[in-house]
Amino acid sequence: MPASAPPVPCRAVPSRSAGGGTDRAGSSRGQRPGPDVPTSRELDGESHRRQPPSHAPTRDLSGRSRGAGEPRSPGPAVSAVRRKLVQSLDRPRRSGRSRASIRCGDRPGGGAAGQNRPVRSTSEAGPGGGRARSPLGRLLALGGLSTFGPLSLDLYLPALPRLTADLRTSEALAQLTMSLCMIGLAAGQLPAGPFSDRVGRRRPLLAGTALFAITSVSCALAPSVEVLLVVRLLNGMAGAIGLVVARAMVRDLYSGDAAARMFSLLMVVSGSAPVIAPLLGSQLLRVTDWRGVFVALGVIGLGLLLAASTLPETLPPERRHVGGFADTGRALRAVVHDRTLLAPALVLALGCCGMFVYIAMGSFVLQGGYGLSAQAYGVMFAVNATGIVLASRLSALLAGWIGPRRTLALAVAIAVAGAVALLAGVLLSRSVWAVLPPLFLVVASVGLIMPNATALALANQGRAAGTASAVLGLLQFALGALVPPLASLGGVTPVVMGTTILATAVAAALATVPVLRAGGRPSR
């Protein structure tokens, strides 16, 4: 690929002209200044290099000779006042807390041909009209929309035995309802992402969330396992729309370190779903059957629909892709061939693959191999999921301190160390306590890997955030759906689980090397 253009620095410092109402480029006060906006040194009269016209020279108050067209040099008192004014305007911009700051870290066109696009700060109004929600409200809404995967998979886990008995089917077909839902979560993102790049984020999000609620209730009405399998596939595809659009909306609003921090905070919200969903499902089974669990999932879908309706449109019409399927295909090919996306996407998929192996094999290994009770396994599952939440909160701090790249490298190193300790514990000891601590490290590292790998992968995809988000989700859930069943062909044993987790962690470490070679931290 050709090298991308360097980031274009932007300044949000309003200039002062002699008229007091417009800047030197002629724009009104409050608009973005032109490229010749004076700096603090220029306002002090120390670095003006304008050539005076060939008129008779005049003298300013200091007695210095100047041309007729040269600006008058201010006195010392005026210079001091202007210096303090410019410093006070520059300080919030440097600290990253200015509401008028303009972040221009994207390469021109966000990875495609086009103009450099400033990214809006969190306090600005949404592009779709109307003022955006508060940062906390936006965080909760987007975090809730990121829980489609855990809710779809984990809420009815405790109900699988009852579902098998009620529909008079086999355990394999009951497990297939989970696999098809995961395939739907992977496949549904590929058309949903490019479609949201063409028509905007809000309409696909509302349609997908409504479809998720409808298909969840339809699962409760399924008369046979064959019908349930079809509806679960559609249920996963509907949930995929919410996942891909939520990621794209974050990229529309944030870039660089700010995006990494926002994805980390989203993981704090969405990471609580694997903790709450199985516990909620088991409590629901006290008062209802597996059909009631799916009705509850439909009610949760309606709640997510209400949350989605509060979010403004984040992709204005001038930034949307136009054209037919051919243009969409070209945009998809450009994203797939972008190495700045593929390397972090592979790290994300491989880093999360170890967690999917743990989810698929953990109950059999820890209960059957190490003798944990169902209640003890539930507590252990909740503790590991809490590790993801805590690691996500830590990631939000590290992203602003050492940057997403170094945070991602640290996360992968933790995953490899945990996987090595896990396999060693499996081979050298029969105690469950030789397995649980390293397993906690492996699972918790996902809370560091996901937000930073996502932010790095989407950093240069400002004009194709939906398509890029779809590729991310497809890789993540495709590997999660394929690797555990293939590994299980060798038997569901502690050694197979430990070996598979170590293999995926080492593969993630190898995929991290080109990410680190790509350069420093992403532009803000």
Automatic annotation (TrEMBL):
Signal peptide span: none
Disordered: annotated segments: 1-132
PROSITE patterns tied to this protein: MFS (PS50850), SUGAR_TRANSPORT_1 (PS00216)
InterPro entries linked to this entry: Efflux_drug-R_Bcr/CmlA (IPR004812), MFS (IPR011701), MFS_dom (IPR020846), MFS_trans_sf (IPR036259), Sugar_transporter_CS (IPR005829)
Biased composition (Basic and acidic residues): 39-49, 57-69
Location(s) in or outside the cell: Cell membrane
Membrane-topology descriptor: Multi-pass membrane protein
Family matches, as CDD domains: MFS_MdfA_MDR_like
Segments forming domain Major facilitator superfamily (MFS) profile: 138-523
Membrane-traversing stretches: 204-223, 229-250, 262-280, 292-311, 340-361, 381-401, 408-428, 434-458, 465-483, 495-516
Keyword Mitochondrion among record annotations: no
Domain of life: Bacteria
UniProt keyword annotations, A-Z: Cell membrane, Membrane, Transmembrane, Transmembrane helix, Transport
NCBIfam families for the chain: efflux_Bcr_CflA
Family the UniProt entry places it in: Belongs to the major facilitator superfamily. Bcr/CmlA family.
Protein name (database record): Bcr/CflA family efflux MFS transporter
